[in-house]
Design a protein that fits this description.
With 368 residues, this protein is an alpha/beta fold. It has eleven helices and eleven strands. The strands form two sheets. It has a seven-stranded parallel sheet with strand order 3-2-1-4-5-6-11, sandwiched between helices. Helix 1 links the parallel strand 1 and strand 2. The chain starts with a strand and ends in a 5-residue tail after the last helix. The relative contact order is 0.16.
Length: 368
């Protein structure tokens, strides 16, 4: 019998809200006629076996509240598909700000952006202590894009506490050789980097790219333009914070190509913030190529999706596979689930192959 999976969350934003709502949504729904899950059962673990034992944020409207209340607090704006999350008895703690707050966000209305809490920040030893006291298995990193120092701060806390790290953001930690070796030496399984949504712009773009390759169509150029209305897109208006995000999203697609089409022929990344879209994300994908006889063709696609539930559909599997890795004593990056659920894993695989690897891992036929 599988037990509980005890998670800590850094950043109680839209993605955390969707994840936590989902735990209780599927608990109510059970296993009969279930929809919206890539895997209903992962080594005996169901979605409702996940429980939140610790949380950190930096917004004054969330810090000090029970997590069950904080997930519905501004500036969160994602869909509420489970309005009855019960009190969890877990208060949101004040996190370490570092580079987790972009200065330009002070110029926008409070209901659209972060409002820094005037509280004492938890230091590294505080985070480590909480992780140990709550017996957390896994910490999920949801700090904003561009928060390089903050992401590494929480990764270091996990190393010191013996807690697994799932990096949902595009700071390269699990895919960084030095960090990966640290977690492997410490005997801690980790998953990352940068969550790849259930059916998002990246997986759509990758699928179309693989189709072109498999059918012998030579790709000449491609773009992916994304915009939305949540705080993630507002945060990314500061272009200096986009470096690793653009690398992550671009390599997720170009890694499939068996040839180089030139940097100038690939443009992938967030483009703008449209406030009234709230947590909706709209993506336009275009691929131009040449088929038989070098005759030109192109494909254009538009994706319109609620961003954060899309993310939760992948993280729910990353959490359960990570716990399975802990149960089995696996150390270091979990290559299979990282390749399947992350844009910038340690090793890129085509998605059909990554899916097969995850199935093998769950059955115990693959170490990681």
């Amino acid at each position: 019998m599988a037990g509980k999976i005890r998670i800590a969350v850094v950043g109680v934003g839209n993605c955390a809200s969707s994840l936590i709502q989902g735990i209780f949504y599927y608990k109510k729904k059970g296993s009969v006629g279930v929809s919206g899950l890539m895997f209903e059962d992962v080594g005996g673990y169901k979605p409702w076996d996940i429980e939140v034992v610790a949380a950190w944020d930096i917004d004054k409207r969330k810090v000090g509240k029970d997590v069950s209340e904080a997930i519905y607090s501004l500036p969160n704006c994602t869909a509420v598909f489970e309005p009855d999350v019960p009190k969890l008895g877990v208060k949101v703690r004040m996190g370490k700000v570092l580079d987790g707050f972009a200065d330009h966000m002070k110029n926008y209305p409070e209901d659209r952006t972060f409002v820094l809490a005037d509280e004492k920040e938890d230091e590294l030893e505080d985070v480590v202590s909480v992780l140990k006291e709550t017996q957390a298995d896994i910490l999920i990193n949801y700090v904003p894009v561009g928060s390089e120092k903050a992401a590494r701060f929480y990764a270091e806390a996990c190393l010191k506490a013996g807690v697994s790290f799932i990096n949902a953001m595009p700071t390269f930690i699990v895919s960084d050789k030095e960090w990966a070796e640290k977690f492997e030496s410490a005997g801690i399984p980790v998953v990352g980097d940068d969550i790849k949504s259930q059916v998002g712009a990246t997986i759509l773009h990758r699928t179309l790219t693989q189709l072109f390759i498999d059918r012998g169509v030579k790709i000449d150029r491609t773009y992916q333009l994304n915009f939305g209305g949540n705080t993630d897109f507002l945060n990314m208006l500061e272009r200096s914070r986009l470096k690793t995000k653009k690398v992550s999203k671009t390599e997720a697609v170009t890694s499939l190509l068996p040839y180089d089409i030139g940097w100038e022929n690939v443009h992938i990344g967030p483009s703008d913030w449209v406030p009234w879209l709230k947590d909706r994300k709209i993506a336009y994908v275009r691929i131009e190529g040449r088929l038989f006889g070098d005759v030109p063709m192109y494909v254009e696609a538009k994706l319109d999706v609620e961003d954060s539930p899309n993310s939760a559909g992948s993280i729910i599997d990353a959490i359960r596979c990570c716990k399975l890795g802990r149960d089995r004593g696996v150390a270091g990056p979990l290559y299979s689930i990282s390749a399947y659920t992350m844009k910038h894993p340690p090793v890129q695989y085509p998605d059909y192959q990554a899916r097969k690897m995850v199935e093998e891992f769950i059955r115990g036929e693959r170490e990681r």
